[in-house]
């Protein structure tokens, strides 16, 4: 039968060119079973008139549909739906299910009950977003990222794009990490000592799973990154919270019998403290004498724009006791999901096998795109641009915080992208954050950073990585007014 | 100081255009500390002469290096290394570490000791690769994939590319799955009942973690996909292996007290059996009466080119007892790492929280690219092309297997991409596979598919998804000769 031209409507609000939308309209009609094998399509002239588009657009769309075998051209008599088109099976979806499983009991809510940082989905629409760790579109080098991605989509990289790496990583990315990224942290490593991960989150999760078993003792900084505490708790290990001071975690405060210590030595989260060299050496000496393992989350080390970055713990490790995690997601963009783990071969072997079991490997295309972006120097140029911008914003923050009489609890001598703030005793910053939302200001309440048994409610974090510098003054003033 | 032109060598074997390689050479020299802030670059003419390239190429590279702030142009006096370039810290990497940790004891080798399918890394260079589940470059629609990826790299999709989705998925991909993919399996679901995963492997891993706790009883098919058994074992659940027959898993053989059943009903791995409708209904009835959960791995359902695909278990589920896992990685390419989970809201909530903890989310860019590829109809065209090619290859397999007197143990009435084969009793197919490698033939020995307590050594799998049809006859003949 001939399909009446009235059956065709361009999909509303769809992305893509007119030609793409016509193809989509036809292929969807075929796939949904509305148009059937052998049906005759309207003439290109007729369809063009009906849709109000040029005839050449329809002809080009038809030609493409022929080459992808949705349509067949039969000489002068026109276009027909192909005989070989995919046919929808004639299943009737079951009527609305009646839930008969008590999922809360089955799952125990083990994973969804973790406390975490909340932020509104539409945070970008707030004028004063003091929100941590998001990409700033005005700094990102979108054009060069796109060029690198297009290069990684070329024929030459077909296998990188498509292959099932399973246990391997992209050799080009590994080489760049080994030769350029790790040496900047003082680390020299072999390929068998490095694993590419889905960002730092995944790196730390893998480390926790490989190193911890139920009942083991693990020391965490207090306060610390809440997702961190959550993933460690999941292993069944006993968490011992160790209070940090202005120099980070004091090694002498580590409780007896600790098996593993997780910490953010270079840039403590959330207080921004940097552990001095003497303390680093004392920590490693204790690790050696007491036989524990150290896991270092070396995030954001690139953002040292005020002081040279200090050497990583891993660079001081002469016994293979330190596991080092890092990430490109902060400096490139969080949606990238690429990070790394460095550790002894025996550790990396297990982490690699676990990664294989959980997700196989980070997509080859993302790895190769990042490898090009890094090796062509765009990454360093981006980091440089971010440092300059953050330095400026930090000055504006400093000034506004001083002018408004707010109290900084930790600001990181090296730079970074946030301030750890203390409100007067008695202020509940969760309530404060809610109130401030109404005034267009987003802050991060500090409670979730603290161990549950040592909860503090009057701290909060102010990040300047996503806020326009011109907005900083007014944003801080609003916070000060709200604290009153 | 002026940098002597002799300091410059184009990186050997590097990818990219001449201009890119010149930029890389300069930026690497700067980043490694060989060239320092204020150093004067050779003239573009001098460098062009030295490298044997055109002067305009060098000039363009210099211009780009200026815009990314590696170089500064000073009027007529030439180009200088910028003052703002990133400087390498002066760490001395620690001398070779002396490993002092017994990693085998620390980790227990818990993850690396899982049996798994082995294949040589250079499998593509073998003339007769009967290897399962890899992308066939001759069928893949590389051009349209690239177009979709470029579209997903556009300004309009900036947020999809970069954003930290955390708990969310790409709404465009979710919509396509809900409206097009799931209805083909008879499933109707709401957005809160679907989760995007890093391929089917990740989907099944998440399901195992959410549903199983130490000591619970889980039934697995025997034989089954070995990685599957490995990930279930990791949860500490008790595995009960249930032998499959020509119709897949017999529900009446499920042991008492089972909490969760994992199975591949539509297309049993590796025997290719399809569970008939009556058995599916019997299984769901048993699930309802005995209160267990069913997890269905619905992989490769698109490859039903001989018989219409049967409805998924999930489509028959009226009580919310079935969790459904599927993947785009088989039909698009394995390196894509995109799949999905469908289940009741209470289940998906936990799986989503766990995914967030483990890796946050699959990269937005891969999700959006897939969404375009799907919604523009390229996916269905690709699946169609694969079906036609596989049908042809399967006929060649059938013929060659018959002509050479080999025994098929399971071939899948619906189509698929492999045969499950039985060698005479006494043949160890692992030794056979090794011998065949020497003759350019890759087969998959069957032992790892069986539960350890019910090991069989004379089975093997022959896949035809990556072998050229013209090679099938000779490949099968070589296998027959080797079995003797």
From TrEMBL, chains A, B:
<dbReference type="Pfam" id="PF00155">
    <property type="entry name" value="Aminotran_1_2"/>
</dbReference>
<dbReference type="Pfam" id="PF00392">
    <property type="entry name" value="GntR"/>
</dbReference>
<dbReference type="GO" id="GO:0003700">
    <property type="term" value="F:DNA-binding transcription factor activity"/>
</dbReference>
<dbReference type="InterPro" id="IPR015421">
    <property type="entry name" value="PyrdxlP-dep_Trfase_major"/>
</dbReference>
<keyword id="KW-0238">DNA-binding</keyword>
<keyword id="KW-0663">Pyridoxal phosphate</keyword>
<dbReference type="InterPro" id="IPR036390">
    <property type="entry name" value="WH_DNA-bd_sf"/>
</dbReference>
<dbReference type="InterPro" id="IPR051446">
    <property type="entry name" value="HTH_trans_reg/aminotransferase"/>
</dbReference>
<keyword id="KW-0804">Transcription</keyword>
<protein>
    <submittedName>
        <fullName>GntR family transcriptional regulator</fullName>
    </submittedName>
</protein>
<dbReference type="InterPro" id="IPR004839">
    <property type="entry name" value="Aminotransferase_I/II_large"/>
</dbReference>
<feature type="domain" description="HTH gntR-type">
    <location>
        <begin position="16"/>
        <end position="84"/>
    </location>
</feature>
<dbReference type="InterPro" id="IPR015424">
    <property type="entry name" value="PyrdxlP-dep_Trfase"/>
</dbReference>
<dbReference type="InterPro" id="IPR000524">
    <property type="entry name" value="Tscrpt_reg_HTH_GntR"/>
</dbReference>
<dbReference type="GO" id="GO:0030170">
    <property type="term" value="F:pyridoxal phosphate binding"/>
</dbReference>
<dbReference type="InterPro" id="IPR036388">
    <property type="entry name" value="WH-like_DNA-bd_sf"/>
</dbReference>
<comment type="similarity">
    <text>In the C-terminal section; belongs to the class-I pyridoxal-phosphate-dependent aminotransferase family.</text>
</comment>
<keyword id="KW-0805">Transcription regulation</keyword>
<dbReference type="GO" id="GO:0003677">
    <property type="term" value="F:DNA binding"/>
</dbReference>
């Amino acid at each position: 039968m001939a399909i009446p031209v009235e059956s065709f409507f361009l999909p509303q609000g769809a992305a893509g060119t007119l030609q793409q939308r016509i193809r989509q309209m036809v292929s969807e009609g075929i796939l949904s079973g509305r148009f059937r094998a052998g049906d005759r399509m309207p003439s290109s002239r007729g369809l063009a008139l009906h849709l109000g588009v040029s005839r050449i657009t329809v002809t080009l769309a038809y030609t493409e549909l022929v080459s992808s075998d949705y349509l067949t051209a039969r000489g002068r008599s026109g276009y027909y739906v192909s005989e070989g088109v995919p046919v929808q099976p004639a299943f009737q979806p079951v009527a609305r299910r009646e839930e008969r499983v008590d999922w809360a009991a089955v799952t125990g809510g083990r994973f969804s009950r973790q406390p975490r940082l909340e932020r509104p989905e539409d945070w970008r629409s707030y004028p004063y977003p003091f929100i941590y760790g998001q990409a700033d579109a005005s700094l990102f080098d979108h054009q060069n990222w796109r060029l690198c991605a297009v290069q990684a989509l070329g024929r030459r990289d077909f296998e990188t794009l498509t292959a099932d790496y399973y246990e391997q990583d992209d050799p080009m990315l590994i080489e760049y990490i080994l030769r350029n990224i790790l040496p900047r942290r003082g680390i020299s490593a072999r390929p068998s000592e490095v694993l590419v991960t889905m960002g730092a989150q995944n790196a730390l999760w893998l480390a926790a799973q490989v190193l911890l078993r139920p009942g083991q003792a693990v020391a965490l900084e207090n306060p610390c990154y809440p997702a961190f505490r959550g993933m460690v708790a999941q292993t069944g290990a006993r968490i011992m919270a160790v209070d940090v001071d202005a120099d980070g975690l004091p090694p002498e405060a580590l409780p007896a019998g600790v098996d593993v210590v997780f910490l953010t030595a270079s840039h403590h989260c959330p207080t921004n403290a940097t552990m001095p060299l003497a303390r680093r050496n004392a920590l490693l000496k204790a690790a050696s004498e007491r036989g524990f393992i150290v896991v270092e989350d070396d995030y954001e080390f690139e953002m040292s724009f005020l002081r040279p970055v200090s050497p990583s713990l891993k660079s001081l490790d002469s016994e293979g006791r330190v596991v080092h995690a890092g990430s490109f997601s902060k400096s490139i963009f969080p949606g990238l999901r690429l990070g790394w783990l460095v550790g002894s071969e025996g550790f990396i072997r297990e982490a690699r096998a676990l990664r294989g079991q959980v997700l196989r490997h980070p997509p080859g295309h993302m790895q190769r795109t990042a490898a090009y972006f890094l090796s062509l120097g765009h990454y360093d140029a981006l980091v440089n641009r971010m440092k300059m911008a953050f330095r400026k914003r930090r000055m504006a923050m400093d000034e506004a915080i001083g002018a408004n009489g707010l109290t900084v609890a930790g600001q990181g001598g090296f730079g970074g992208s946030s301030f750890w703030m203390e409100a007067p005793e008695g202020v509940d910053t969760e309530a404060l954050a809610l109130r401030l939302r109404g005034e267009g200001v987003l802050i991060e309440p500090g409670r979730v950073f603290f161990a549950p048994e040592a909860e503090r409610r009057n701290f909060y974090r102010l990040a300047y990585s996503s806020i326009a510098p011109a907005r900083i003054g007014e944003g801080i003033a609003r916070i000060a007014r709200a604290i009153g």
